[in-house]
Amino acid sequence: MEGAALFRFILQASVALALAAIASLLLLFVRRLVIMRIDRANAERRRELEEMVYGALEDPAALTSGRLGARDQRLLLAVVSEMLRGVDGEMRDQLKAILALHIDLDRLMGDLRNAIPADRAKIAFRLFWSDSPAVHDALRAALDDSEPEVVLAAANALLATGQSISLLALVPKLESRSMLGNRAVRDLFRRLAPDNASALFTFLDDPNPAVVVLAIDALARAPSSPALRRLRAAAQTHLAVDVRAAAIRSLGLAQDQQAAGVITAALSDPAWEVRAQAAIAAGRIGDAGALSQLKKRVGDANWWVRLRAAQALAKLGAEGIAALEALAGDEQLNQLVDFVLSERGA
Fold first, then answer.
1. Which CATH architecture has domain 230-346?
2. Which of 84, 221, 275, 282 is deepest in the core (most CB within 10 A)?
């Protein structure tokens, strides 16, 4: 009897689970249908708004005033902000006038504070067109947002409006949100570099290697003599591998002939990342004095160092090519040498 009761219980539980699974699938299906319908409606309305914008650009007198609904404002802002990034002059002014007529900036600034993170980031990203001091203040406040995407969007929007940003104030915010390894942060540093040169020099002494690497990369975009001196020092003495590698890379990109000795010495660095960057840099500056060390590095224990050293030799003219051809007799290196020579067309 107990066996029969257990069987009924298992059967009933199985049926209940099956019904629950079917109900979940139906709910997902209905949800998907609703989302698809909303997407279709938004796409259709977006096309209508695009036509409105095109009409206003062709005939400004046809532009009517009046606020749109919240959904239409979001769609119009998306349409016009995309267009604004590709135009300037009179057309840009016309597009900004369209937004000024139809977009409720007070509501947008409220959403920038209170919407979900993804929407806050979109709003910040799309406010780059506004000349309103209140909007600029709202974007500066968004630099303290808890979400990294919002901080980046607000910073880029502020730069697009021509506002200045202090790296000394911004870096702690980025650091506390674990954003320093983000490629977008590197690009932001580069854009901020011209107005933050003194801050970049300060960051070269920062205890966080990620900050130092960002400062090195930004300084290398428009290197000055003092900056190159600091980069040479970092390449030789900094304890962090990433910093030494970034400094060597930047010296090569800057074509710093005075760094030839530093670069050659870095070919013997304990870290393969630094040795690889040193080989690349030696090739970039055409340092014939590094030829002997580069020949040694073609036999390095690390494959990347071997490749970069062989590629650097190929850039050092006849002497470098001759060195490579001599190494081709080594059966452990001949495939690598043949590849590099074929790359060069030799």
1. Alpha Horseshoe (1.25)
2. 282
User: What backbone phi and psi angles, to 5 degrees, belong to 341?
Assistant: -65, -35
Place of tokens 């698809």: 36
**Cα–Cα distances in angstroms (integers) from residue 231 to residues 245, 250, 285, in the given order:** 10, 8, 16
Take residue 180 and report the two structure tokens written for it: 């320093």
pLDDT at 66: 66
pLDDT at 310: 92
| Residue 236, CA distances (Å) to 83, 240, 262, 281, 338 in order | 48, 11, 7, 14, 33
- Pick from 159, 162, 228, 164: nearest CA to 187: 159
Look at the chain and count its residues. 346
What is the rounded distance in angstroms from the CA atom of residue 202 to the CA atom of residue 200?
5
Tell me which residue has tokens 């937004």.
99
Domain boundaries in the chain? Answer: 230-346
Report the C-alpha gap between 148 and 177 in whole angstroms.
6
What does the block give as tokens for 60?
A: 């400004």
Q: Which amino acid is at 270?
A: P
Tens of pLDDT, residue by residue over 75-99, are 888 888 888 877 888 888 888 888 8
pLDDT of res. 64:
67
Secondary structure in 3-state letters for the chain:
CHHHHHHHHHHHHHHHHHHHHHHHHHHHHHHHHHHHHHHHHHHHHHHHHHHHHHHHHHCHHHCCCCCCCHHHHHHHHHHHHHHHCCCCHHHHHHHHHHHHHHCCHHHHHHHHHHCCHHHHHHHHHCCCCCCCHHHHHHHHHHCCCCCHHHHHHHHHHHHHCCCCCCHHHHHHHHHHCCCCCCHHHHHHHHHHHHHCHHHHHHHCCCCCHHHHHHHHHHHCCCCCHHHHHHHHHHHHHCCCHHHHHHHHHHHHHCCCHHHHHHHHHHCCCCCHHHHHHHHHHHHHHCCHHHHHHHHHHCCCCCHHHHHHHHHHHHCCHHHHHHHHHHHCCCCCCHHHHHHHHHHHCC
